[in-house]
Amino acid sequence: MQLSSTLTWLVDAASASPGADRFLAELGTRLIEDGVPLAGGALTLAVPHPIVARRTWLWRAENGAVIEAVGFAPAGFGAAGNLSGDAGRSWLAGLAGGAVHEDNVSQDDVSLGSDGPMLGWIGPRPFTQAESDRLRDAARFAAAPLAALSARATVTAALEAYLGKRSAARVLTGPLRREVGENIRAALLFADLRGFTALSEAEPPAAVIAALGAWFDCIAGAVHAFGGEVLKFIGDGVLAIFPVTGPSPRNACDAALRAVASAQAGMAHLGDARREQGLPPLSFGVALHLGEILWGNVGAADRLDFTAIGPAVNLVSRLEGLCRPLGRTVLISGALAAETTTKLIPLGTHELRGIASPCAVYTVPD
Questions:
Q1: Residue pLDDT, tens place only, 49-78
Q2: 40-46/52-60 β-pairing
Q3: Model pTM?
Q4: Cα(116)–Cα(82) distance, rounded to whole angstroms?
Q5: 223 Cβ neighbours under 8 A, 6+ residues apart
Q6: Distance CA 122, CA 114 (A)
Q7: C-alpha span between 283 and 306 (Å, rounded)
Q8: What percentage of residues in the chain have a pLDDT greater than 90?
Q9: DSSP character for 127?
């Protein structure tokens, strides 16, 4: 059988597509070149993600533009599994022209598997039977490359959920060997929830998990909003970095300070909400420092962790331990204070447990 150029591409090259967006645009363009009249297309994939249930890419033939829609799963993956697929279906139906043609793509049977990829198309007029057959053939041949794309997306999404975007990218591109990493300069943030042990003993597990989740949402959300990345959840503590990307560390230091201010505002709001529920507010301490870290793989020969280690990490965690004795929520090292124009209040020089040199300590105005 002589394959069309579209089917040949699906067999030979489509698996190398850099992403689902480019796959959809290339497939649609090739189908048009093979004589199938298309006004637009949609591709929906399931995503193993803690928030997003499905992702849909929408392609317009007239300008080649591809946009993305997501279906969120606020109450678990199954709660909103079809939101993104519905978005693609509604978008296709909204385009002027003929009826929508859709295929559930499965390597076993193109008509089965609602959780598998979904391809949808619309033309400037209703499709003929021959054109529908071509689209169905394309869906069958698309099963293998879409399986490869889905597998890559699954690995990436899982690593990003557990490691963060930057760290996941490093793991994907680096060798899986111990002691592989790089030295980077970064503003470090270490935060710790106050009274968590007492909370754990006084409240049922479900309430403890809910409180811990609310705390992590607040601090991690603030870190991510200002360009940082959470490296570790350590019990009720958080270690995050704001990498220095230019010759000056000022942007990274200012971003870390803004993240702390945002977290304070978020925790105040959370405290009000907890009081309305008859629950005590949650308090925390946070420290900021600027220094060099080794960012990479540590662990056993066959069980690795991707993290940051070095004297700067030790210092920022010890500095956070001074929050309670000094009666402050936020403490900042002299190294970071020297690189920002933000107004800070000096608190003197203090010894830190296990750190050889005393540390100049600052805080933010109340």
A1: 777 778 889 999 999 999 988 776 654 333
A2: antiparallel
A3: 0.77
A4: 11
A5: 189, 229, 230, 238, 240, 242, 259, 263
A6: 20
A7: 29
A8: 56
A9: P
Quick: pLDDT tens for 98-111: 567 877 775 443 33
Judged by phi (left if over 0) then psi (alpha if -120 to 50, else beta), residue 125 lies in: beta
Residue 92 confidence (pLDDT) above 50: yes
Tokens describing residue 198: 């007492």
- Cβ contacts of 96 within 8 Å, gap of 6 or more: 39, 124
More confident residue, 187 or 54: 187
pLDDT, one tens digit per residue, over 127-171 is 899 999 999 999 999 999 999 988 888 888 888 888 888 888 888
Instruction: Give the pLDDT score at 1.
Output: 44
Delimit the domains of the chain by residue range. Answer: 5-163, 176-363
What φ, ψ does residue 257 adopt, rounded to 5°? -65, -40
CA–CA distances in Å: residue 213 to residues 18, 217, 224, 251, 363: 34, 6, 16, 29, 27
CA Rg, the chain, in Å?
26
CATH superfamily of 176-363: Nucleotide cyclase, GGDEF domain (3.30.70.1230)
79 SS3 class: helix
Cβ atoms of 317 and 192 within 8 Å: the answer is no
Q: 329 to each of 21, 129, 279, 317, 349, how far by Cα in Å?
A: 45, 69, 21, 14, 17
Give the pLDDT confidence score for residue 125 in this predicted structure.
Answer: 87
Q: In sequence order, what are the beta bridge partners of 120?
A: 42, 102
For 270-291, what is the mean pLDDT?
94
